Amino acid sequence: MIDFKSVLKDIQHTVTQIEDKGEVANYIPELQHVDKNAFGIYLNVIGSEDFEIGQSQTKFSAQSITKVLSLALAVSKNADEVWKRVDVEPSGNPFNHISLLEVENGFPRNPFINSGAIVIADILVSSLKNPKQDFLEFVRLLANDNDIHYDTKVAQSEKNTGFKNYAIANLLKSFDNLNNDVDVVLDFYFHQCSLYMSCEQLTNAFFLFANHGRCLSNKLHISASQAKRINAIMLTCGFYDEAGEFAFEVGLPGKSGVGGGIVALLPNKFIISVWSPGLNPKGNSKIGMSALELFTTKTNLSIF
Amino acid sequence: MIDFKSVLKDIQHTVTQIEDKGEVANYIPELQHVDKNAFGIYLNVIGSEDFEIGQSQTKFSAQSITKVLSLALAVSKNADEVWKRVDVEPSGNPFNHISLLEVENGFPRNPFINSGAIVIADILVSSLKNPKQDFLEFVRLLANDNDIHYDTKVAQSEKNTGFKNYAIANLLKSFDNLNNDVDVVLDFYFHQCSLYMSCEQLTNAFFLFANHGRCLSNKLHISASQAKRINAIMLTCGFYDEAGEFAFEVGLPGKSGVGGGIVALLPNKFIISVWSPGLNPKGNSKIGMSALELFTTKTNLSIF
Amino acid sequence: MIDFKSVLKDIQHTVTQIEDKGEVANYIPELQHVDKNAFGIYLNVIGSEDFEIGQSQTKFSAQSITKVLSLALAVSKNADEVWKRVDVEPSGNPFNHISLLEVENGFPRNPFINSGAIVIADILVSSLKNPKQDFLEFVRLLANDNDIHYDTKVAQSEKNTGFKNYAIANLLKSFDNLNNDVDVVLDFYFHQCSLYMSCEQLTNAFFLFANHGRCLSNKLHISASQAKRINAIMLTCGFYDEAGEFAFEVGLPGKSGVGGGIVALLPNKFIISVWSPGLNPKGNSKIGMSALELFTTKTNLSIF
Amino acid sequence: MIDFKSVLKDIQHTVTQIEDKGEVANYIPELQHVDKNAFGIYLNVIGSEDFEIGQSQTKFSAQSITKVLSLALAVSKNADEVWKRVDVEPSGNPFNHISLLEVENGFPRNPFINSGAIVIADILVSSLKNPKQDFLEFVRLLANDNDIHYDTKVAQSEKNTGFKNYAIANLLKSFDNLNNDVDVVLDFYFHQCSLYMSCEQLTNAFFLFANHGRCLSNKLHISASQAKRINAIMLTCGFYDEAGEFAFEVGLPGKSGVGGGIVALLPNKFIISVWSPGLNPKGNSKIGMSALELFTTKTNLSIF
């Protein structure tokens, strides 16, 4: 039996000593006022207990992590349309995601790069009655927690400065891969990304991916096969241009966000969320990546 | 002495017999209702007479041809800023102008691809009091003709469908190479492109480039050296991805538009405008290109 | 308990009925004379029995599958140099692997695209006394089978027609990422790819990756951590531009070759090789992919 | 009347005072032992005298300047094949000429980038009896000077280090755009580039391009129309990624080489060669570019 409590303690001990904690994201002005030394983990071991350490209850901006949740909702609504409009291949080129979109005629490489996530947002805007409210309710249901909200200041901040996302959405529209108005889709998308959640809430919300599509309260949202597929995409595409490195070093499906959060999981075994706001040059939480490497090394729990 | 009158007659005779007249542009819905068989030429031989044939007085949508006029106005206002924010190199890659813009960090290759022309529009919006009105007055002054107007239907049509230009403008903004609001700059840009002019008016408006910067009414707008530079850019970048082909076959500085117009010139010698709305696959007037090839072959007037 | 025998039978029954069996590779002339209807599987269930069906003993050209074996040998000799000279990220762009190599200054994206495999070949040429003989002995040792040989006709055939590989090797050399002569490295590389092996031999040779680095005869060749890493690269990069699709549909680390073979594995559980020479448009065995999809669906054995 | 003698003197006076003379090319080891302060001009004013200043008789490595001469010979032998196998468009992208070649399926953008020049070399190898000797005789005939030779040391030096050219030639071969052996074509190409010529000899050799295809001794080598076309390509593609800049600043068809030479011309008017071995970051002679800018500014002789 693994003593998860002391594993988490060891990890905390080790990573808090790392001096270079990376750089807090500043491209969204609202995000940069976070304490760089913040650190928390929340671990759900399926069929056993939950374990937590540090600021596991503190909320932060979930950002790109929410792309997995919006994908799950879109797949549950209309899986066929999702896979017709978005590919599932890693994106490869770090420096030119817009270029790739142009070269590939508006067919995004996968649902986790911005262009893909914006297409998913478009699908949700089309298929939900009250898109923002309905998505929020979906996340609350997954996490079994009603204390989850949008951070409208962050959403507004991105609206004012997210020119690259406007460029992407307009390019998608020029290729007929966006059905709704650019402004409507991006309003939804910026709200989605602004979800303000704690490690505990994220771990709970991701439970279904490790549990064949059934969430904490045992409701089936997506089929086992769909859960497996989303896990595969998390592994190959979940960490921007560091996806290979993460698979290589950690070996778990997962997703990171520029707010400094990372969620990872081993199907049937556990879901873990880590938070530390400083990012490495590739845009993933620096301390979070180290913590997860240590976790799989110490526990020997990885998919490989 | 060249008998220009019969040269133009011969050209008209030859090109009207070409069966495949190309395809009228349909990406701007308003443009597609033009008669494919329309054809006109207006030639100004400096220090001699003017010659015309066919529908030389019929107005059509000048579109990209106006990029040379907006460049001239921007250069007259603030040449330093122009060359700091736009390069003067041919763009090369046909298929990925947005990609190129991304790879080169928002610094457009030249002022005649859309990204470059949008930066020029931004400079004009900043430096003119009433941008749309002032630009219109400038063109009227150049052409010595007050009967020049915007085609607001065409401008509106592009506003509703020009998603690629919105993508470009937002991408420029994300690279800090657009100072004004995207919507304001594009409103100006779409109006600029919608200028409704005849071959005669275009020939007159381009007189200054063949005349060391002095327009028909002898006013100096740009220096002789600036006129020479703009001619160089027309030669190397004036025909989309067919610039090399045009230099190779025709050998004149010039600029085409998707409305089917082409203006070309030989400094100190002549300015010629041709119009035929059918385009070749590269987006240049098919019959217009043939007419200009014939013109330089028959008259032996080319820069090479 | 899963009845693997009938699972394999069912798979054989299903896939032999698929009419479109893909196209046999013809870019290496020697490869195209293979029977398109050939089909075989060899499965090693760790700690249990072996199962086989069809032409599981027939030899075919292993081609790119050998890249995993050469990587394992290079890692066992000099892991530091391997990861200094080759990255571990998916390659993304299907159409321009040479372009990518140029853009990224001669640093191949991963060891399974040709540029990466040629760097690995260069490392082996530097670190082995008799490179071709030593590599052959290594594979025989892994497979516990001395009846494994190079197909020198195929090697020669690639030597005569493999201009793209010569282009890649010279480009690597121009970026100082090839220490030996182009001809020497490619002679080794073409021999490596020409290995002529059966499904049974491939399954046996890949045993170490599912067994923490220990081969069939229990010799430790690479550390458990290195085996885990190579598995991660197989999952993210093992199927050309279909890596994401394979992870998505099958969910196993694996590697394909243009000879029509595929090897896949689940750590601690099993190693499976499939062979059917017809390829899909992405260059992977068409029937082989279907067989593996059926296998993970029927057995529910996947990493996700 | 322009006093060319004092124009050249003024230029020499001005440019010798420029402190930063650029960097002598070192990628071919043999080229780097040249005196950075060397400077010479040789001017042929058609129908008038010749003028020269500085080291106008000193020989240097002509390098890429020879691409215009090999193109002229290939066009005179088989113009149709030339334009079927090479395009005439500027290359645009500075950083990825090999990528461009891959993206465009082995069809080089123009005959002056290396890939295009290697295709021209292939055409000459096919159409000449003794390629190296015949090409040398052609250049001697053009320049009316038998004291022109290959620098075999430089040719050998490139053979040993020109891996990028080997990559290009093999890539061309993989796209079926190279008929002869890579080694044979590159042996010819490296010799061609190694031509050791003075400013005077280059000016004389380029006479035909300013003289409707007739060389100094009045022999017609290419038609007037072909001469015009080659001039157009020189203007749009003669200066690597600085072609636009050169057209913009100088306004003459021309061609530079990494040996520090530049030849430029105004049809019917003059041919001028400048030599100064230090290069600017784009690979063109730094002082040579300045000298030509001064020349067109002072004489007002340009095509625009």
UniProtKB/TrEMBL annotation, chains A, B, C, D:
It catalyses: L-glutamine + H2O = L-glutamate + NH4(+). It comes from the Bacteria. The keyword Hydrolase applies. Keywords: Acetylation, Hydrolase. Pfam families: Glutaminase. It is an enzyme of class 3 (hydrolase). Substrate binds at S64, N114, E158, N165, Y189, Y240, V258. Coiled coil: none annotated. One of its GO terms (biological process) is glutamate biosynthetic process. Belongs to the glutaminase family. Homotetramer. This is Glutaminase. The gene is glsA.
